[in-house]
Amino acid sequence: MLRGFAIAIILLGARLAIADVPVRLPPGTRAEGDHQVSGRGLRDTTDFIAKELDRRGRAADRLGPYAVRGVELSRFVSRSDATSWLAIHVVRIAGKTLIYFVPRAGGLDENARTR
What we know:
6 strands
């Protein structure tokens, strides 16, 4: 019974972590540490995120996909100050497609930003 309870808590935590993501991600995506792991490949994941950003009307520059030293990468850079994220990185390395949300610099007052 304790094992079943522990599994339920882990699954609930994973579901809550995905719910906190600012952009809807492909089905089968799961939280893993400070990033998300997509169940799809780089191209499918990148296309899914691009369509989702277009659907929501989020202005973002799309860079890639391109490969550097055996790592494939696509990036979305926000053109709006209204988003909670500055960039979304989609990385394919060692057979896994990872998604990272780069947060905007927050919590700094205007004086700290100009220093």
